[in-house]
Design a protein that fits this description.
Two copies of one chain form a homodimer. The first copy, chain A, is mainly alpha-helical. Chain A is 69% helix and 0% strand. Chain A has twelve helices and no strands. The first copy, chain A, starts with a helix and ends with a helix. The structure holds a DNA duplex (30 and 30 nucleotides).
DNA sequence: TGCAACCTTGCCCTTGGGGCAAGGTCAAGT
DNA sequence: ACTTGACCTTGCCCCAAGGGCAAGGTTGCA
């Protein structure tokens, strides 16, 4: 018959852990010897190993207690297994992002993006626009590392077409206008036709490349009522949820 | 400029989590607007994403704070990566044991072991010995599933040799003897030579098959002073730590 | 006989947030 | 101008799964 410390060392937990399992009704209290020490049998060890197997799989102790008595265990085990697979995949994804962080991909923008941004003032863009673009690309590269590069190159290419460049410059200038200025409606029209021409009839997604989530656009819009209204118009005309 | 809820929804955490990070000095407090709301920039979002990447890798927040300022980060990332690999392996092992549990391998002894145990009384073993063997194999199969079968078969084979069977039977009978009875020393001698004969000069491990941990032996010994002394003698003679 | 290493219960501490209260603020529609 | 619902603010207590310590009793070994 084992003492609590022997059982604990044996299964690879601390005595405290076993006492906690008793207190929570996970493992029944064993008989005590003459001096009040708990005395365990091999069957208790097997039971404890089962509990630890579930606990190490991340099953909450309360749920282990439920499973202990009922015979829902057979069914539950499959879901726990799936859950475990999902967590393993999650950890692998985390590891991947961690390695990108180690390579410095999250700490600064790539050199060509910085280069691109530095040329924007020369093309006629405002300081505000450049700062917004900086933030925007920072976010896109941080959240969509795999597609960010393609989005960026598409955007940079747009500015080499004089007609399209003029449209984007007007976007910039709209910032301080009244939301109901007719120039807002006019720009919305121009953006719709330019977008349709560039990306075809069935939109891959709204506006500037498919990888930019709506949230980024929302953050951009927030600084100007005119931009907010422009965004509303575009969503209506392009049929985006 | 983002509010806390926008930033939170964006990075995929709750606003509370961000406040906790402020309180713990992980993420600096951003400027407040006229009404006291926190206002975040894209740089904060990038910083938060870094923090979450580390947190999801299981790095304690206190440690993330240390890494945030110092440039020990580059070094620490490698260890965190290793750590993560180890945890992925651990989860996979847990999953493996979970599947064995699902197959019922932990709930009962295999049929051939039960069969073997049921034949022991007929060979002259005591009830006590059979119960101890039952417990012992329960433990071995629970903790060393991969090697248990080989250990068991080796042990079963031993009992088919009449000379070895007699040695084991004497082990059983020793239980109630005085620890200093000369028969204890005599059995120790016999066991040493039998073990050497069976397993060669350089022991794979002590006594009955290499997979049985010392702790199991300890549990067996606990019930008899004579067995305890026998164990001590064997360890000395066979040179086991 | 002494000592180290156990065991007992009880209580507070920790991590990483969740949830609620009580109040202030914002944007939209009426 | 008012209301409504969704935000935001701080402050507080709560959770799981144990860790650690205290104060006392017990065991094994020389």
């Amino acid at each position: 018959m084992l003492t609590i410390g022997q059982l604990a060392g044996y299964v690879g937990v601390t005595a405290k852990t076993i006492r906690v399992y008793h207190a929570k009704g996970l493992l029944p209290e064993p008989p005590r010897d003459a001096s009040g020490y708990r005395r365990y049998s091999a069957a208790d060890a097997v039971e404890l190993i089962k509990i630890r197997t579930l606990a190490e799989a991340g099953v909450p102790l309360a749920r282990i207690r439920e499973l202990r008595s009922g015979d829902a265990l057979r069914d539950a085990l499959r879901q726990i297994d799936d859950d475990l697979s999902a967590r393993i995949d999650g950890l692998r994804a985390t590891q991947e992002r961690l390695r990108q962080l180690a390579d410095g991909h999250l700490s600064a923008l790539p050199a060509d993006v910085v280069d691109h941004l530095s040329r924007l003032p020369g093309l006629g863009f405002s300081e505000r626009w450049v700062a917004l673009q900086n933030d925007l690309w920072l976010l896109v590269f941080a959240t969509h590392p795999s597609t960010a590069r393609a989005s960026f190159q598409d955007q940079a290419a747009i500015l080499t077409d004089p007609a399209l460049l003029e449209v984007v410059l007007e976007y910039d200038r709209l910032h301080d206008l009244d939301p109901h200025d007719p120039r807002v409606d006019a720009l919305a029209e121009k953006l719709v036709s330019a977008t349709r021409a560039r990306y075809g009839a069935d939109m891959p997604a709204y506006d500037r490349g498919s990888a930019i989530p709506a949230l980024v656009q929302g953050a951009v819009n927030a600084s100007s009522p005119a931009w907010r209204r422009l965004d509303t118009l575009l969503r209506k005309r392009l049929g985006v949820s």
